[in-house]
Model the fold of this input.
Amino acid sequence: QVQLVESGGGWVQAGASLRLSCASSGGTFSSYAMGWFRQAPGKEREFVAAISRSGVYKNYGRSAEGRFTISRDNAKNTVYLQMNSLNGEDTAVYYCAARPRPLSSKVTQAYEYDYWGQGTQVTVSS
Done:
């Protein structure tokens, strides 16, 4: 059973940066495509970014394009989300997710991922 634990969230002012981490255990990390989603109060879970098993292919949601960068370190069983130029609309709980199948640009829905972390809160104050 794969377990995912997010960290790195917090409270920041608009314009600041944060790096989220998601540590994986209980499975072969390099065999999973990884994704980041977020959910703000009263809103549906939103796709943020995804990365292939090798780390070569990356896909970003509209809100993340140009500001966020997803990366992974298979030796450390960890996926990262570097977030720059944060604004109030980025306030949400951020979740990482694992998918034991290949990734494509069409894989942007939460139901396409099998394992989820408990989330880390990001609050951006303007």
